[in-house]
Amino acid sequence: MYPDPKRVRHHRISTRLDDYEEQRWRRMCDQLGIQPATLLRDLAMAECVRWSVQPDRMQQQAANDPVMKDSA
Fold it and tell me: Are the CB atoms for 2 and 8 separated by under 8 Å?
C-alpha cells in the first residue's frame, strides 16, 4: 500500500488559539494559499530542524523569552 508505513500521518496534536491569534494565522494561510494544518506542520518541522542544529543556544534563548516565561 505505502512504501513506508511510518510516513502515514496519523498522529494528531491540538493547539488552542485566541481570536486574535487565529485571525492572524488565517490571514497568513490565505496570503500563502496553504491549508492551516499544512502550514503549521511545515513550520513545526522547520523549527525542529533548526532546534537540532543549535539546541543549546535555542534552549537558552527560549528560557529568556518573556512569552515563554508567561506561559509557564
Answer: yes
Q: Is the whole model's pTM more than 0.90, yes or no? A: no
Cell numbers at 26, concatenated: 488565517
Instruction: Find the domain containing 42 and state its range.
Output: 17-71
The three grid cell numbers given for residue 19, joined into one nine-digit string: 481570536
**Is 11 a member of any domain?**
no
Residue 6 lies in a domain: no
Q: How many domains does the chain have?
A: 1
**pLDDT tens for the 72 residues of the chain, in order:** 678 888 898 899 999 999 999 999 999 999 999 999 999 999 999 988 888 877 666 666 666 666 655 554
Q: Return the C-alpha cell found at 3.
A: 512504501
